[in-house]
Amino acid sequence: MEQFIVNIIHRPEMAPEYAEKVTGHGRAEDLSRTPLVTESLDIFRVQQDCAHRNGLKTTIQMTYASLFSAEAVALAKEHHAVYGDEIGLTLLGLPCDRFREKYKTKDFCIWMFSMEDKKAIVRDVFETFYDRFGFYPASTGSYYMDAELINYIKSEYPGVKCAVATCWEEGPKAYHTCNNSWYTFMDGGPWAPWIPSKVNTHAPAANEAEDSGVVAIPHLSRDLLACYDGNGSNFGTHPQNVLRGMIYDTEAWEYPYLYNLIDQYRSLGRYNNGVAYNMMFVGPGWMNKTGRWEAPYELLLKSYEDCCAYYGRLKQEGRLTDMTMSEFADFYRANKTYTEPECALWRDILYGSDKQLFWYCDPYMRVCVNMDQGGAIVDLRPYAAKLEWPVGIGTPHIQDASYPFLIQEKYRAGYFTHYAGEGTVRSAKVCHAGEEADLCLCRTKAHFSRAGDDRVLTLDPVELVFTDGLAVTLQSVITFTEGSAAIRIDRRVLAVSDPAADVVIREYMVGCYGTTEYAEDMSSLTLRLDAGDDSAVIPYEYRCREARARDAAAVSCTLPPIRTKVSMECAGRDKAGFIREGYAFSPMFTLGYEGTLRQGEVFSTWLRLERAD
Questions:
Q1: I need a surface site. Which of 237, 421, 468, 564 has the fewest CB within 10 A?
Q2: 383, 204 Cβ separation under 8 angstroms
């Protein structure tokens, strides 16, 4: 039986990060203004009431400022006793007069502080929490929590089981839609719960030795297609996200997209051993009385009431289980293994297209496959490297917490779109009589299945017709074997209009590395072709050099800046491996194999990831 689990998380911010600018009406900033504090607490009560009226329990994540409010502390204690709500502690909501006076800063993102300050702040808020409640919290969180921060919290407060630890795909896309002023970069992490490794929060632990000791959940459950293609802040199961995206009937005040999004999350159990997860993480700044997102308060309130009512109906029908954060952490530990992947075959529910994406995440990689591009891999993060990536003041990455990519179509072009150069993508070309057709141009659909340790994506066949009339029907099958750190792609020729004709298949990966749109220095990369006496090594110098050899055992690229080695291997007739260096205008590298295919034959390649050192 499939199980749909929901975490509903509220935080009683006394000085919400959004609300002061809106309710201040042009006055000088004052985080202690009585109307602001009073309204914030009133909204928290409303949000709690929305959940409780529908039979839902919540996790109350106390903010630093709320710990100094006797009323907020009393409310939390009451709701814990009456409704079974969990009292946790968030590292969001730090800004208040007391915090600014003590730490002499307007910074509020815990992961951006120096490690010394992180430790001081953690001790301060956790000990203040203990003073108010007589126990330490079992759950905590922020928009993002770096590995050093999680490790420190777990060492000092071992009772912490669960943490909100990243905001899915909040990187350059979110930055650009916030007028280039929202310096929170955290692309490349999981979209569903995971156990973070000790060295990098985004990379799931592969075993007990790598286990940071907490179960992590994302900050908001987001549309895995609309958020990837655009600004994620408009596409989440937080109802005010949907209002901000203007995705509702402005006259009837209805929002079918919100329910469709929740339902699509419910459907993910079919890909993940019957377990689906969704979360809603809400602060009071979204529902202030003057309105937000071009919506009046009445609509803000109605959307939240309606959303909680929908969850409540699902619970009454036995189709939803509401858990607190620590309850969910216990459930996750009892029902998941380290190497078990998270999968999502996601379809467009917003724009009316037939587009599909498939997302795959395990301790070795995060992958996105785009069926609108013939099953091309359009996003690839090499978790196998378990890249150490310290974040905050005093580190090389003050704001950028993103896990680097090898392939990323949004930041590095994807399929060819320019008159020169290439973009990052993993695809194939079918060639005949001097023509070539890239599978990126062939829309298809995918079907998910499981066989033992394999998660298999079987794509609908596509037909390629060349100028001379030769027609080739080809099917792609993409297999992820649990624990292998490899992706297998089989190209099967189902039919050829001339069964005696050979066609050439050219499997390729165009890659680079980075976290933004801007090119990194590729000078330290090394391309290698392993083919016995015909082996070749190309140190990257932007000189467009190539090497090719028949029966090559492997082609690879080593990327020291992200401690990653990516390689390809092949099984097929007349196979030849090749490597290609890029140039300054197109700072990429290319790995690939070429071979011949006839009707009924299969050409197989494996893309492998490993830590380079």
A1: 468
A2: yes
The percentage of residues in the chain with a pLDDT greater than 90, rounded to a whole number, is 88
> Running DSSP on this structure, what letter comes out for residue 521?
P
The pTM for the full model equals: 0.96
Contact residues for 120 (Cβ-Cβ < 8 A; gap 6+):
103
For 81, phi and psi rounded to 5 degrees? -70, -40
For the segment 420-433, the average pLDDT, to the nearest whole number, is 92
Rg (alpha carbons) of the chain, rounded to whole number: 26
Token pair of 392, please?
A: 């905050």
Using pLDDT thresholds of 50, 70 and 90, give the confidence band for residue 95: confident
The H or E element that residue 352 is part of is none
Tell the residue number behind the tokens 């499981």, with chain if given: 450
Looking at per-residue pLDDT, the higher value among 28 and 155 belongs to 155
Dist. CA 506–CA 494, nearest whole Å: 17
pLDDT exceeds 80 at position 350:
yes
Of the CA atoms within 13 Å of residue 363, those in its CB half-sphere come to 22
Element (H, E) at 381: strand 376-381
Residue 384's alpha-carbon distances to 69, 272, 376, 380, 552, in angstroms, are: 45, 21, 21, 11, 24
Q: How far is CA 180 from CA 173, 402, 571, in A?
A: 10, 17, 47
Residues with Cβ within 8 Å of 289's Cβ and at least 6 positions away in sequence, in order, are 23, 39, 297
